[in-house]
Amino acid sequence: MKDTYLSELMQTVERRNAGEPEYLQAVREVLESFEPVVARRPDLVESGVIDRLCEPERMFIFRVPWMDDNGKTRINRGFRVQYNSAIGPYKGGLRFHPSVTASVIKFLGFEQTFKNSLTGLPMGGGKGGADFDPKAKSDGEVMRFCQSFMTELYRHIGADTDVPAGDIGVGAREVGYMYGQYKRITNEFTGVLTGKGLSYGGSLARPEATGYGLLYFTEAMLAAAGKSLKGARTVISGSGNVAVFACQKAQEFGAHVVAMSDSGGYVTDERGIDLSVLRPIKETERLRISEYAARVESAEYHEGCFNIWQVPCDVALPCATQNELDGRAAQTLAEHKCFAVAEGANMPCTPEAVDIFRKAGVLFAPGKASNAGGVATSGLEMTQNSARMSWSFAEVDEKLKTIMRNIYLSAAAAAKEYGCEGNLVAGANIAGFLKVAEAMKAQGCV
Ligand code: NDP
Ligand code: 2IT
User: Fold this and answer.
1) Distance CA 217, CA 210 (A)
2) 375 Cα–ligand 2 center, Å
3) Nearest alpha carbon, ligand 2 atom 9
4) Quick check: helix, strand or coil at residue 48?
5) Do domains 56-189 and 208-370 have the same CATH topology?
6) Is residue 127 among the annotated active site residues?
7) Among the atoms of ligand 2, which is closest to the Cα of residue 116?
């Protein structure tokens, strides 16, 4: 970082958050893209907006005790970061995964603040979760865990305060259990969580929204470069909520999806991934992706998830987790003439990977812009809940398309305006930042 103010701020953030690599990675990437902003907007430096953005408003860490099926007491650690409320109530998902730490939750909350701003909807940034592993747990164990988690979390959230949703390891089942417990404790039926089931206030198209939105964004980015997904060999990592609906929409756009993964390994299928086989394996039977190769003759299973990027492709959509695509993988993708990478996950590409894509001229869509369709549709769920109405699938999907196209346009426009045309990383960071910054400045030093 050349700018003295920004590099000193980064040093302060490093001192204050020592031992939190994911958080520092996310902050560094954003501060690096602020050089042209700092040069042009001294008022934002003077009002301390950027300094304040590098410190979450507050964070809760709590014990989550629950009893397993053998009657043994188990303990997990729960988190909620209320990162920034300048433009709306805190909003962001909950992640249940053994890798969850304060650093992971803070990086996600930081990213969420910019992402939510980009949607154009009035939502601040938040994130939470626990180091709980839902794998191999019975429904009863998952329910007791969710109830215990909510028994602490409920006092910090509310439809106009902080509205959690799903993320890794948190889907319709977990949201249902948490919603039930919230309602039982508070005796209120409000839109306090999104991603709810359709029968109790959920929005049509919310399950599809992140994956669909990713493809709407990708199409817009490709169209501007005179390219399209038609016939594009596509590799998608993950096989969870985001990956499955990314695959569905990619196939609708005419892409040929040849590989998908889970944390154990990946499958290739030259005939194209068959979602009618994959979805029940992952969604209802909750089995490993290796099962797909056992059921589909044209498919092959490969141990180890990170090698999925060795599969030659035109388009890569990382939809699993942070730092899953490193410099080596990026090099291979570039050598294979991959022409576009769009992040469905949060921060799946390492800084080295992003740098390689930029130098090789690979079109690159950063997650805080390209995966914003999920939270945008959560925003639409909040609106429907407040109005006590529900919109049709087509209505929500149409709004989602418009939002994703607008996010692409505003990231591209900000990049151009601030002298880095074509760099959507900088464009998304700057466009997301400016709205939050104006609101923070107007509200004074709080
Ligand atoms: P799911 O839990 O539904 O699926 C996660 C998928 O990623 C699974 O296939 C999982 O494999 C794989 N995965 C998880 N951790 C790892 C790991 N450490 N290494 C390799 N693979 C891993 O989560 P989502 O699909 O909801 O989330 C995926 C990503 O998208 C996350 O980064 C999330 O933050 C982001 N995101 C999600 C949104 C949403 O609306 N759900 C919105 C915007 C972004 P396995 O089953 O083996 O664990
Ligand atoms: O990372 C994300 O944007 C999400 N997990 C979705 C959050 C939400 O509130 O819908």
Assistant:
1) 10
2) 5
3) 92
4) coil
5) yes
6) yes
7) 3
Topology of domain 56-189 in CATH is: Rossmann fold (3.40.50)
pTM: 0.98
Do residues 241 and 320 lie in contact, with contact meaning Cβ atoms separated by under 8 Å? Answer: no
Spatial neighbors of 68 by CB under 8 A, at least 6 apart, are 74, 141
The strands making up 124-130's β-sheet, listed across from edge to edge, are 58-67, 73-84, 124-130, 90-96, 162-165
Q: What is the pLDDT along the chain (446 residues), one digit of tens a residue?
A: 899 999 999 999 999 999 999 999 999 999 999 999 999 999 999 999 999 999 999 999 999 999 999 999 999 999 999 999 999 999 999 999 999 999 999 999 999 999 999 999 999 999 999 999 999 999 999 999 999 999 999 999 999 999 999 999 999 999 999 999 999 999 999 999 999 999 999 999 999 999 999 999 999 999 999 999 999 999 999 999 999 999 999 999 999 999 999 999 999 999 999 999 999 999 999 999 999 999 999 999 999 999 999 999 999 999 999 999 999 999 999 999 999 999 999 999 999 999 999 999 999 999 999 999 999 999 999 999 999 999 999 999 999 999 999 999 999 999 999 999 999 999 999 999 999 999 999 999 99
Q: 92 C-alpha vs ligand 2 centroid, how far in Å?
A: 5
CATH architecture of 208-370: 3-Layer(aba) Sandwich (3.40)
Enumerate the domain spans of the chain.
56-189, 208-370
